[in-house]
Amino acid sequence: MSEFAEDEVELQSLVKQFLRSISDKISSAPSPECAEEILLHLEETDKNFHNYEFVKYLRQYVENALGSVVEEETNNLTREDGQHAIGSGHDTLIHAVTQRTRYSAEYQQMIHTLKNTMITVVESLKNKSEEDQLRKEETHQEKQHRQSNIQFTDNCSDSGSSFSRVRENCLQMLPINLDSSKPKEVRWEALKVLCRAPTSDVLSCESWSSLRLNLCVALSEPDPDLSDNALRFFAKSLSSSPLNVTREIYTSLAKSVESSFLSHKLSFPSGSATIDVNRPEISRLLKQIRLMNDFQKEVTNFWIRHPEKYMEEVIENTFSLLSFHHEHGSPGTERVLEPVHLLALLDVKATWFKKWMHGYYSRAVILRLLERKYKSVVSGLLNNKDLSLVYSGKELEYCCFVHSLCVLGKLIIYTNGKKLFPIKIRKYKDPVTLTDLLINVVKCILIHLLSVGSDVLSPSTLVMEVLWMLCEQTECATECLYQTPVIEKLLTPVILKSPAATLSLIADILAHVVIKFRLLDKELPSLCESDMPHSLCGAFILVCRQMYNICEGLQVLRPYGLHKALAAAWKKTSSLSERVQTPVPGAGAGSSTQELQNTLIWEETLLDSLLNFGATPKGLLLLQQTGAINECVSYMFSRFTKKLQVSSCEKFGYGVMVTQVAATAPGVVALHGSGFIRALVLELWSVLECSSDDVRVVPSVSVLLSSLQSFLYLVNLLSSSQSVWELLGRQPLANKSEYTLREMPTSIPDLIDRLIAVNSDVKIHSLFRYEESHTFGLRLLNVLCCNLDSFLLLESQYNICSMLLQIFSVLLRTIIIDSLSVERNHVLVRVSVVGGPSERRLPPRDLQEVRYPFSLSHIYKGFALEDVCFIHFIYIHRYGIYLGLLKEEAANDLALLMKHVKIFLSTQRVKTSSELSYPGHDWLASTVFLIMAGNMEKSLCLLVSLSSLLTSGFIWPARIHASIHFPKEVAESGIPPVYWCTAHYVEMLLKAEVPLVHSAFKMSGFTPSQMCLHWLTQCFWNYLDWTEICHYICTCVVMGPDYQVYMCVAIFKHLQPDILQHTQSQELQIFLKVRWSQNYNIHAIFY
């Protein structure tokens, strides 16, 4: 390791060269945290990363330090287990070698030495950089000092030997000579001497205080010889002094300008198109504010290196000047000229303020001062908010408007900036709210303004820039733009059929701003009936799509029937595309082909927009009602086969969209009809059985690594019991006597037949990788059985438990230690025992967790099920006996209760020919039966009474299924209200209250709505203990159905650490469905 000490100089050179190479990337970072993030991901973003000499040096150093360790560990692991030497086990070998190397003494020593050496190198580079900077500054100051000394000596002394004494005498005389009582010539000569003297000497002399006062007086003199020379000294001081000196100069300049505005009540005619900036008093102030503005733009480059109080003093003096206004305005048509007018002329787009707000170091001080002392600055800017209505030819006022707009736009993108509103301003009775400000800003687009200056400074362009800036911040867009009055103002041109130019401008703005879209018309006509071109409609649809694919946007948009308008437009366009004539050679084929192409593109745009309704639970209901769900899913599958993203608005591919669609019966039917499920099954089979790699089970993960993605797709697809019913209901297994090696499954029943129900030698021999594939199937079965309705269907149709027990009977006298037996054991215990986390104890699933080998078959000898039609009765009866609530003879009473409830509920349902019937068991009725300790009469009475309450529609899924209380199209949709109502609001609140959890679901391709549907449909059985289930039902009945939403959100919030952890390991679905083994208390969850 001593080579570092020898090569330290070389290493310094390499680091310096490396930093120079990436300086562009680092300097563009808005904050140190972002710069650090860029460095951490440099290897991913910089194609030249491995060509840097510094990187090569580090690679060689690591190889020298750890090469022997890696080689030794590789040999050891290869000898220990030969499987690491072949196939895909190579990845496992690399992982194991890496882990052992990281914990080795050599690695720790290398890291320690490397860290210390790099600290030394970096500190050395920093010191050299600071020394170089100081040396440059000293050289620059000495050069200026020599030039000033020569000039100063020529004017103040006849000999160089008396320079110091004469200079001091001259400085002492300057305040006296600059006094306003002195003649102009004396003051002018004093100013000339002052400008030639070294700034540092002037600022450090004993008479600086009185000299500063006289300089400020000179600044306000009407004589340009005096004011310009005084300003020249201020400019020299600001450009060549450190901040601790320049802040004092700037303060003096700001106070002098403020004093001038106070003493000279300047005004300009508001009705005039011009203002003469050559007027002496305006020209003088304009020059002084110009100097201030130049300093404002540059000061951000170095004020972070000084104490915060220096920066705060500069900011405070600026705000003090900008907050200046006369208490009594000018009469008639005259307007008072204020500092902000002249500042706007010089820096029309408020570049100085943008620079000040760029870094948190200064932004925090700015917002604090505005909140505490200088709200009048913002109110002064807001006074210009309605001037845009009359700005056509008034350049000064227009510049002030532009400057104010830029400053306000920069302010309101920050949380503390929005807290400044509402603000009380002069001439207005009511305080101005943030919504009022944005409405007045949008007016600039709605009024036909003459162009002022270039297009870059046109009102429409400026407002667009502000709206785009707000759009970039999601929270800011929600608070500022997701407001009904703002949207109505934005959409005024659409309602009033404004000119095409205005409509295009509005469409362009809306296409860049994600807002809650609100239309004034209660019902939208078909978009094909509109005379607007497709490109313009497409811009509006794009914005709508960005809104209705989130729950909040859909809530606002839903009453206006956009889904119906889109569906009508699609149907009309589809019929037109079918009627387009086939091009005939020589008969205008070009125009006909182009027309057909445009029609097809428009049709795909409409289908894509309709498909995006499926991103939320309630949106999926609206999509189903349009009758276009099958076509939309087929369109999505066509894009899937082409490896295209589902849409430009869907950031995480197909995961969330497919999961959301698959949660419902009509959605999974559409997926099946499109060929999506067939493609998924074939892809899975290819990974499991046809892959050329040697797949091995890694105990630390829940499924095979190579098939993890396919496993998660299947879990998402089969998460809902309704989906399982549609795909498996009345579908027998093949159970063939022979399977060819080329025969591949194409459906979910085929997959179960080949991977789960492996109960014959024929099926075993048909698998190339029997152990891995069957393990995959058993783990999929384990997840499916977590949904009680899904398990009851599997057991009633395929006798899953009997099949597993039959395999155990074959191994009756065998000591079982393989992973397949452990997995079968876990599945059997899970499906045979009902209860919450503390009411049942599941066996381990991994071989490492099994404490000792044992024979398992005798455990299940009493598990024979007499009649599959009564499986659920047996389960409920067994659970009731375990809880001490039921007696042995209570099973008949439970069956009788279910019969009465079924008859009662049948009278509450619409008569429909739809096959999308309610397939699940009535878990609420079973829960009530247990609460009533098996008393059938009391249970039935309670259920009948409960059916009259609104709450029953949410906690009793069987009660509300196809209910006559819903519109016919909703009742026949096959989508339960628990999904499109409760789960929808859970997702909406989750995004607002627990955004990290919401993002975790989004990235995992899973949805909170599916998990809520799972929990609520089976009344939290197997997820909560019995007492907590009772608390849940009582809370919803007593407090109202909204507490069902609150409880789900509270559970997700309580699980946040686990959810985030398992999202990283790609096991979120498995954790929520299978591994939720903690005991939660409802009161603890809520509070």
From TrEMBL:
UniProt-listed Pfam families: BROMI, BROMI_C, BROMI_N
Compositionally biased spans, kind Basic and acidic residues: 130-145
Compartments where found: Cell projection, Cilium; Cytoplasm
Gene Ontology cellular component list: cilium; cytoplasm
The BROMI N-terminal domain, residue ranges: 11-138
Task performed by this protein: Required for high-level Shh responses in the developing neural tube. Together with CDK20, controls the structure of the primary cilium by coordinating assembly of the ciliary membrane and axoneme, allowing GLI2 to be properly activated in response to Shh signaling.
Protein known as: Protein broad-minded
Organism per entry: Pundamilia nyererei
